[in-house]
């Protein structure tokens, strides 16, 4: 019968497990201002209406010596009448329950934007024709099914797609337990993070392939799995697609301000930080200059950036630089009193989430410090450059208005951090730690190594609390929210400057680094050289960053 020998739980192992309570934020959510569909509990995707389910009932869990390293599979409960399951949920056991799956029904009324001449008349949702047994667990004994898990892939009718697996502890589920989605209402899906890999069976979380501000892929919250014993199931799932052009679940202006008032984080800078942030207007007022290629004399910049060339691309024709002399030394230090967060609000995951990117500006990025074991070597120039743009992104669930996660940008990359892993200063307001000199963002104080933390070799990112901080609740400016329409949010002139906020200066950093290597113990020299060769290119010269709107994540999704 079933001959796959993998995970197996004895029946007695299953008894202590209970249906878990989902994670909750430290403080209750407020009553959000009135709007369209934001925080209404349901979202219209065109021909589908979906609801987010965060309460689950236990089905099956993997059996490992350390149960905290296993995974558990759940089915959603508390499904509203008329809605249908699209797939089950998988959760790592070493984390608080923090997830969702969408359930769906055909929308009560068709989207007004639908072209009636081309409208598809077949139903949006249909039962599968059958199931494919993608994987099963037992102890290898014929007929012994106690404590086993069975993973079923719905076989969709022609013209339909499956968007999730079902898991049972015994027999094949009935066909009416799940729905497949009409193909034109789905989008391409991709594997995201490996949740479990054991023997011939692997489980991934999934996410839409088309993401970012313009992407319409909607995450269903389901998982994907494959077994080596069944070829052709590399990624048999799709995600949903939001065909509602109005994105009615996105927050309006009043709701955006309410979100910042409730979730606005505080940015803490290191107590030894020299190069503090400022507002862009303070930077312009205090001597910043616009340079043009071939002209050695810079032009003072209007306080609103109105004389900056707008549009175009980063073609090297223009750049911003600091003034000379004592004024240069002063402006490099920034002005904390004027500093503010610049907000870009945009759709995420097909408008089922809202991303609020909070950009912070520093007139200068200080030199780096190298950590080699117990030694710390402060560079004179390496790592420094004029101007620094850093950001974090709050991801808000549009079903409830709940903060879902925060993205911490860290030099050329970054990381998403779940809300249960954050520190909070008050209520649901998180703390952001900005690293000394480099201003990368981290969720906790400490020293983070850009290189090999295991070997203790790399560039230091030191974070700590101090009296140097910026509270985004009282110091912010909404600079862009394109989805609201033209003229709703007035974008400042400086936001349209697509060139570099700083000059390009190349110097022979390799020579300085080689000198450091030669004074190290022989046993460390090879490892340190390898770290150096992997360091970002900007450490080998000075190159000002482009502004927020020229970054890939302005339109695209965050990296990570």
Automatic annotation (TrEMBL):
Database matches in InterPro entries: Vps62
One Pfam family this sequence matches: Vps62
Domain of life: Eukaryota
Protein name according to UniProt: Vacuolar protein sorting-associated protein 62
């Amino acid at each position: 019968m079933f001959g796959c020998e993998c995970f197996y739980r004895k029946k007695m192992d299953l008894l202590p497990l209970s249906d878990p309570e989902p994670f909750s934020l430290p403080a209750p959510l407020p009553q959000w201002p009135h709007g369209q569909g934001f925080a209404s509990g349901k979202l219209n995707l065109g021909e589908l209406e979906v609801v987010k389910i965060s309460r689950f009932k236990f089905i099956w869990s993997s059996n490992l010596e350390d149960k905290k390293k296993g995974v558990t599979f759940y089915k959603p409960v508390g499904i509203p009448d008329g809605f249908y399951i699209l797939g089950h949920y998988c959760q790592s056991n070493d984390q608080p329950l923090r997830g969702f799956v969408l359930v769906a029904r055909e929308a009560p009324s068709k989207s007004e934007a639908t072209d009636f001449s081309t409208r598809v008349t077949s139903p949006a949702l249909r039962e599968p024709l059958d199931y494919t047994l993608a994987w099963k667990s037992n102890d290898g004994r014929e007929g012994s099914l106690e404590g086993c898990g069975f993973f079923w892939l719905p076989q969709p009718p022609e013209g339909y797609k499956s968007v999730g697996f079902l898991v049972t502890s015994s027999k094949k589920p009935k066909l009416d337990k799940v729905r497949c989605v009409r193909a034109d209402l789905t989008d391409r899906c991709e594997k995201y993070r490996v949740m479990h890999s054991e023997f011939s069976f692997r489980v991934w979380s999934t996410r839409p392939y088309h993401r970012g501000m313009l992407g319409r892929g909607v995450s269903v919250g389901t998982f994907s799995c494959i077994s080596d014993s069944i070829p052709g199931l590399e990624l048999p799932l799709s995600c949903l697609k939001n065909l509602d052009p109005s994105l009615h679940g996105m927050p309006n202006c009043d709701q955006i301000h309410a979100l910042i008032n409730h979730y606005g984080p505080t940015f803490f800078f290191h107590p030894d930080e020299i190069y503090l942030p400022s507002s862009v207007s303070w930077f312009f007022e205090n001597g910043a200059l616009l340079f043009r290629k071939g002209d050695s004399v810079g032009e003072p910049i209007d306080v609103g950036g109105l004389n900056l060339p707008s549009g175009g691309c980063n073609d090297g024709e223009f750049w911003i630089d600091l003034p000379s002399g004592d004024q240069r030394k002063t402006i490099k230090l920034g002005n904390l009193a004027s500093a503010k967060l610049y907000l870009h609000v945009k759709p995420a995951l097909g408008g089922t989430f809202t991303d609020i990117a909070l950009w912070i500006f520093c007139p200068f990025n200080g030199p780096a410090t190298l950590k080699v074991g117990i030694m710390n070597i402060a560079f004179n120039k390496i790592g420094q450059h004029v101007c620094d743009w850093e950001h974090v992104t709050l991801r808000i669930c549009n079903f409830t208005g709940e903060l879902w996660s925060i993205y911490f940008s860290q030099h050329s990359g970054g990381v998403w951090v779940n809300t249960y892993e954050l520190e909070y200063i008050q209520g649901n307001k998180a703390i952001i730690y900005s690293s000394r000199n480099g201003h990368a963002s981290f969720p906790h104080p400490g020293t983070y190594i850009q290189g090999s933390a295991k070997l203790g070799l790399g560039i230091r990112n030191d974070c700590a609390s101090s009296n140097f901080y910026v509270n985004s609740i009282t110091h912010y400016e909404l600079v862009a929210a394109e989805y609201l329409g033209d003229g709703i949010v007035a974008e400042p002139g400086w936001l349209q400057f697509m060139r570099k906020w700083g000059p390009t200066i190349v110097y022979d950093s390799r020579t300085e680094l080689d000198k450091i290597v030669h004074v190290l113990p022989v046993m460390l020299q090879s490892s340190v050289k390898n770290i150096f060769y992997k360091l970002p290119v900007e450490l080998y010269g000075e190159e000002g960053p482009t502004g927020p709107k020229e970054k890939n994540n302005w339109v695209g999704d965050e990296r990570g």
